[in-house]
Design a protein that fits this description.
139 residues; mainly alpha; two-stranded antiparallel ribbon; 10% strand; globular
């Protein structure tokens, strides 16, 4: 039987290994994200469209906004959700639970429940209406 200090060291080593393994898997999952995030928007046919186009030469136009983002692109999305899809979100630039649920609702209505994940990306961008100079419209 091992002494108490040896058992404590063994438990501490096992805990440290588990924490490090968790951190490694989190960083590799983040690196594997198929859609880079973006904080920009673009005018398309008079409509402001979040996370669209090529903000830098290294990013493609397949961009995703998610719950960890707070920026101008989210404000544009919230404005479109309010004005074109009849939500009452605070236009604060934070992609919180209410924005997530509003996006999910729009996805369910336009794309079907199977595609309703709450993340704004290329498929959602193409399906939903966006607010612009002439009112609401699809791009």
């Amino acid at each position: 039987m091992r002494s108490r200090p040896a058992r404590n060291r063994l438990a501490a080593t096992a805990l440290a290994a588990a924490v490090l393994a968790g951190l490694a898997s989190t960083s590799s999952a983040a690196a594997a994200d198929p859609y880079p995030t973006c904080n920009t928007y673009k005018n398309v046919n008079g409509h402001k469209v979040p996370a669209y186009g090529q903000p830098t030469p290294t990013l493609t136009c397949n961009l995703v906004l998610n719950t960890s983002k707070s920026n101008e692109a989210v404000k544009v999305l919230q404005t479109s959700l309010n004005n074109c899809h009849h939500f009452s979100l605070a236009v604060d630039g934070y992609y919180g639970e209410k924005t997530f649920l509003a996006v999910r609702s729009v996805q369910a209505a336009y794309l079907g429940e199977a595609h309703a994940d709450g993340y704004y990306g290329p498929r959602t961008r193409g399906a939903m209406k966006h607010w612009g100079l002439s009112g609401c419209g699809k791009i």
